[in-house]
Amino acid sequence: MPNLFHNANAQKTDTSECFYSEALQVLNCSDLSINFSNRLKKGWRVSAKDYKRTLTLPSYFKDAPRPVVQAVISWALLPHFNRAKNNKVVKSQKRSFEHIIKEYISNSDGYEKRCRSDLSKIENLSQGSFYDLRQIFNSVNNSFFSGRLESYLRWGKSDSRTSYHTIRTDKSGVDFHLITIAGVYDSPIVPEFVIKGIMYHEMLHIAIPAYLKNGRRVVHSREFKEAERNYPFYNEWIEWEHRNMHRLIRIKKQKRRKKSYLK
Length: 263
Prior knowledge:
The chain is of the alpha/beta class. It is built from 7 helices and 9 strands, in the order E-H-E-E-E-H-H-H-E-E-E-H-E-E-H-H.
């Protein structure tokens, strides 16, 4: 496979290359190259030349979780340079991908500012309106991991839908785990077994780290999936999300519109 990765003003990392390469292979895409730039902060872009596309991302996107990587690559592969870009289905898909990307950018930007000031302040973001992530984490940790896991915790934006685990580095050069839970779940209609199921999933990423196999980064291995199904309320959790996520998202959107109107 040709080298699809370039880095503007920053060094490349093998882990990020494998992670993005995996997504490109899954999508069977050979005409898209990826740049990481330190100059970009909140924006991203795609350009085309000689029937090939170049996607340019902020450098911190190297640490983006799988759903964000898939979203930004899928976004880049949509029509951008012909009449098809005005198609209603294309526009809808683009908005959906951009929601995931902007959500990650918003969280990452806020995190960087807090990290530079005081890492301990991240812990203040674990207390939601209805659920305290630290209490949820401790309960899951003691029940399933013998209390041995450690991680910083935070809620995402109030209407965010993506939960993820990342490994960050503080200003002293020490790596630490950070679990972000989608803000849409901080609601009184969400049962505790659902929040714990989501937390359990993200904690499994710490207990069963990703690894490289044949040049690909395996995140959800067979071992991971089997362990996830050991969660006592796994079926109930998945079934609840299947039946209620649309309703939950709708409620969050209505609250956001109401707040905007009151302003």
